[in-house]
Amino acid sequence: MKKLNSPLIMHINYFEQGQSLEYTVRRAVELGFDGVEFRRRRTGVEESVCEYLDELKRCTDLYGLRYVLFGGPGINVMTQDQDVIRREIDDYKNFLTEADKRFALSCINFMTGSIRCPDAAGYEYERHGSGYAEDWHWENAAKACQEIAAFAPQVKFAFETHMNYLHDLADSTRKLVDMIDRANFGINLDYGNSVYFAKGTYPALDKSIEICGDKLFYTHMKNSVPGSPRRTPTALSQGEINHRIYVNKLCEIGFTGMIGIEAPRQGDREYFAEEDLAYIRSVLQVH
What we know:
Number of helices: 9
Shape: globular
Strand order of the largest sheet: 3-2-1-10-7-6-5-4
Helix content: 25-40%
Order of helices and strands: EHEHEHEHEHEHHEEEHEH
Structural class: alpha/beta
Largest sheet: 8 strands, parallel
Distance between the termini: 8 Å
Number of strands: 10
Strand content: 5-15%
């Protein structure tokens, strides 16, 4: 079995408790991460796209961060208002233009806008997203993404499997990727989101990886334990998902993308970053 040598990416949510960009980048490098997945824009900060990217460029150059990835917000094309769709796409293309001037863009965590069923409880995820989508939702997403694929062919765009989106589970995300049918659009498998769906409504871990197949560009890893009605996030090593099995399966399919880890839980997330990185490194060392 081929050893996995994936760059290890820290999700910015480990450092969204008041830390500055400079401190975040410095600590990510000190801890030993290869890169960071940043937001496309920061919440609660009044700044232009260029001001944000310039500060990020200064910090990453200062500390030598190898990989700069970007995530949400993506585009929202889950509307039938064509003017809104046009603005969303143009705004995103402007971001790509400015980011490409400053960084060697590799992989972007991508989303197309949420879909919610008004008659379903918030935690009934199987009734939202792809479970509530109509044909026009799929058509809008495919058309918009084909335009973005042509605009930035050097970038790999990876749909995060995330509740309340068209691309909520491995099978629905693969359907969307196949509709788009462009080499630079693939999947970011976040199986830590899939387990929030009702049992029996989502593919098992090994099956999810197989479904993604050659379109698996990136992975998000996090963990949790069951609760009623909601789950409780845990350390990467302690929840329901066995990430040793996850890594084994990635090795089996010849995965060559990046591994992103994240901490959507309360407490000292800076400590969690060090803890989770040590765990996933220990797993990778024996494969």
